[in-house]
Amino acid sequence: MPPFPTYTEQPWAETYSEIIDVRSPSEFAEDHIPEAINLPVLSDAERAEVGTLYKQSPFTARKLGAALVAQNISHHLLAHFASKNKDYSPLAYCWRGGQRSASLASVLSQVGWQVTILQGGYKTYRAYVRQQLQQVPQLTFRVVSGLTGTGKTCILRSLALKGAQILDLEDLANHRGSLLGEQWQAPQPSQKHFESQLLQKLQSFDPHQPVWVEAESNKIGRIYLPQQLWQKLTQASCIEIQVPLSARIQWLLQEYPHLTTHPDILKDKLQKLHRYSREQLQAWYHLIDTQQWENLIGSLLQTHYDPAYTHALKNSYTTVEQVFTLTQLSDSGINCLVDALTPHSALSS
What we know:
The protein is of the alpha/beta class. The chain has two domains: about 10-130, 3-Layer(aba) Sandwich (Oxidized Rhodanese, domain 1); about 140-340, 3-Layer(aba) Sandwich (Rossmann fold). The protein is about 50% helix and about 10% strand. The protein contains 16 helices and eleven strands. A five-stranded parallel sheet has the order 6-7-5-10-11, sandwiched between helices. It has a four-stranded parallel sheet with strand order 2-1-3-4, covered by helices on one side. A two-stranded antiparallel ribbon has the order 8-9. β8 and β9 form a beta hairpin. It starts with 11 loop residues before the first helix and ends in an 8-residue tail after the last helix.
């Protein structure tokens, strides 16, 4: 079996026809090699059944496991592999490169396909991710900072449209970076899957060009940034965006429409702000009940978000080299700012 390949030297999509994760759906959902597909040889329920039986009778469990694996592989042969040609050559892996991936590889090899098993399985891949994130690639980061509601994420995406490299950590973490920033209809990824996606993104960047990133704390929702990356970001050059309070309020109401459509969920989230008095929470609840959304957002910004962000910025991002003031967050204003940051239409350093 070959050594674990790296993304930078040889993209796996070009090395193998396909990457197959044969673990159960829940294992795959927690984390997997990027671009892998899930063809489980045991479902979650089957894996649990075999595991429970194994404690009582290992031999009986192996018989049941073999029957279930054969049944599932048969299904995959008819549903997935039927269209593959003679040159098909996948990479397969399970938890440790053991029986589950070997079972599929054995059958596919009998058909005539060249199958590679990832030595050490997912555990090898996971160790590789951890090791790589301990030595973040030599990239030049430029940080976009500013109080909540200054359009930082929109600025990042506009930079990307101009050809700049961006690292959208909130997108990878599926969270907007604050108490109210959780994407209410979709959960955050696991810490492991976030790190897999992050590493893939970092390794895709051209080290000769800067990477733009939004100023973040070392924790986005429930996701922690790797320590080495966090240190690099706090040492990077930084620009600050300043926008009037009234424009920020309108921007947030536009960007967070769920705040005004789910008042009960909003109240539940505000209850997590334990530092504030019952009187303050009741005042916010009253603004919600009476649908005074502009007053609510303004109060939350001035009472909670702005002091917290200002404190964090002073402690973490000390190299603010330029300050840009936008009177309103319009498309034209953001485009003018982005043009100033990328004077050569792409990758200004």
